[in-house]
Design goal:
Length: 141
């Protein structure tokens, strides 16, 4: 060859190795052609993936456990404006605002009336989040 093997073009022009697929044994014979291999694979998949038998007896104890409401943690206590004030006072005033553009400085300057309104607004919506009902969707509003 008169091409240098250091160039990429030289490597691209070299013949690529042939990919051979080995034969598959289906039953007592070997599947050599693509058609025979696909049929053997289809038979294998149909024998592996079968639906479960639905004739199994149901255990009433397991059914009772699955149907009961699951509570993952204790219910939350009601928040107070004092707790909100304490949390807001611990916030770093130099922190950047979130996607709602509310800064810690803005929260620290809120009047008491606004904090009371926030506690009234948030407390009933935090309660249902602790009660996880299996198979049901909770709506906050």
């Amino acid at each position: 060859m008169d091409m240098e093997p250091t160039t990429l073009e030289g490597y691209k022009s070299l013949p690529q190795p042939q990919q051979c697929s080995p034969p598959i044994r289906s039953g007592s014979t070997w599947a050599r052609t693509d058609q025979e291999k696909s049929e053997a694979f289809a038979i294998h998949l149909s024998s592996v993936f079968k639906p479960n038998d639905a004739d199994t007896p149901e255990d009433p104890e397991i059914e009772a456990i699955l149907k009961q409401d699951l509570q993952m943690c204790l219910p939350l206590r009601h928040t107070t404006p004092k707790e909100l004030t304490k949390i807001i006072s611990k916030m770093n005033p130099n922190k950047s605002p979130g996607f709602d553009l509310i800064t810690p400085r803005l929260l620290k300057e809120l009047p008491r009336k606004c904090l009371v309104f926030l506690t009234i607004l948030l407390t009933p919506h935090l309660e249902p989040l602790t009660y996880r009902h299996f198979g049901r969707h909770l709506k906050l509003l």
